[in-house]
TrEMBL record:
Organism from which the protein derives: Gracilibacillus ureilyticus
CDD domains in the cross-refs: AL_MDR
Entry-linked PANTHER family: QUINONE OXIDOREDUCTASE
Upper taxonomic lineage: Bacteria, Bacillati, Bacillota, Bacilli, Bacillales
InterPro entries reported for this sequence: ADH-like_C (IPR013149), ADH-like_N (IPR013154), ADH_Zn_typ-1 (IPR014182), ER (IPR020843), GroES-like_sf (IPR011032), NAD(P)-bd_dom_sf (IPR036291), Zinc-ADH_QOR/CCCR (IPR051603)
SMART domains on file: PKS_ER
Protein name: Zinc-type alcohol dehydrogenase-like protein
Statement: the UniProt record of this protein carries the keyword Phosphoprotein: no
Keyword Metal-binding attributed: yes
Entry similarity comment: Belongs to the zinc-containing alcohol dehydrogenase family. Quinone oxidoreductase subfamily.
Gene3D superfamilies: Medium-chain alcohol dehydrogenases, catalytic domain, NAD(P)-binding Rossmann-like Domain
Length: 338
């Protein structure tokens, strides 16, 4: 089967940073599905794993996690899906990735593709949607209840990116008042289209900006951009007994004393945790992707696809990685068809 992989970890402008390879087609066993890939999307994690380093692979390393396709085979222990089902998912970071014609994935982290979306539109969603859902409802423990959240406010830092684009929509569905950050005219327009009530610039202190909109504090913060840079500002605007969730690793020690007097909760979100450690609640990703499909088909959530490239090959993947590396992506870039 066709696949795109790497042997060396090189800058993306190097022609060997991602290369076309041929691999043996895998076979589905136990709870694995063998999926024929129709479309994939590129995330910052793809870029981070591929980033230059001294390590060299003996066999091709296949990256990629987001995918949408059709079930070709179902393992003997599968109960959720059958051959012919159209699915979307984000795989496990501990297994070979989705830059391949066929891909093995545990059915417990797979959802049925939204009927109203194309394969490309659906492929843009899983990793960012899982991250947004888990961050909001599992880590920040926000109730999915409009009445409960009527007077509650969330600050989403990095609202125009892949995760932010979903988080804004889900937070609005849950009844929260959403303040999103964006630093350019086009990204500000995008977050407003998605439902953000107010927009501030994450390159400046948060407090004076939210005060202009009549807020002195926020109940929740979802940090999707540079935890180190925003740490002091987050501590300043979070409400007493509020909660902060971040998906961006810190590069220097974080002073937790900033949160102490307010008894603030700080928690990480990493969407690969469940699949990486085979946690007992691993099936929750199947459940949330299924709910998301319904929200999409009901017109309550929209795809975050902004650009589609075809076909899926090394040259086009290098282009997509370069786009994501700029850090200025709005929404998602997708590749479709081998």
């Amino acid at each position: 089967m066709k696949a795109i992989g790497l042997y060396k970890y090189l800058p993306i402008d190097h022609e060997e940073s991602l290369i076309d390879v041929n691999l043996e087609k895998p076979v589905a066993e136990k709870r694995d599905l063998l999926v024929k890939i129709k479309a994939i999307s590129i995330n910052p994690v793809d870029v981070k794993v591929r980033a230059p380093k001294g390590k060299q692979e003996i066999t091709p390393k296949i990256l990629g996690w987001d995918a949408c396709g059709v079930v070709e085979e179902a393992g003997s222990d599968c109960t959720l899906f059958k051959p012919g089902d159209e699915v979307y998912y984000s795989g496990s970071i501990t297994r070979p990735g989705t830059y391949s014609e066929y891909h093995l994935v545990d059915e417990r982290i797979v959802g049925k593709k939204p009927k109203s979306l194309s394969f490309a539109e659906a492929a843009a969603m899983p990793l960012t949607a899982i991250t947004a859902w888990e961050g909001l409802f599992d880590r920040l423990e926000i109730e999915f209840d409009e009445n409960e959240n009527e007077k509650k406010t969330i600050l989403i830092i990095g609202g125009a990116g892949g995760v932010g684009s979903i988080a804004i929509q889900l937070a609005k569905l849950a009844g929260l008042t959403v303040i999103a950050t964006a630093s350019r005219e086009e990204s500000e327009r995008w977050v407003k289209e998605l439902g953000a009530d107010s927009v501030i610039n994450h390159h400046h202190s948060f407090l004076p900006q939210i005060q202009k909109f009549g807020f002195s504090q926020v109940d929740y913060i979802f940090c999707l951009n540079n935890t180190d840079q925003h740490w002091e500002s987050m501590g300043e605007v979070i409400a007493p007994q509020g909660k902060i969730c971040s998906i961006v690793e810190n590069r220097k020690p974080l002073d937790l004393n900033v949160l102490k007097s307010k008894s603030v909760t700080f928690v990480w979100e990493f969407m690969f945790t469940r699949s990486m450690y085979h946690t007992p609640d691993m099936i929750k990703q199947y459940e949330l992707l299924t709910k998301l499909s319904q929200f999409i088909d009901d017109g309550k959530v929209r795809t975050t696809l902004k650009e589609s490239i075809s076909p899926i090959n090394a040259e086009n993947l290098r282009k997509a990685h370069a786009m994501v590396e700029t850090g200025k992506m709005i929404g998602k870039v997708v590749l479709e068809d081998f």
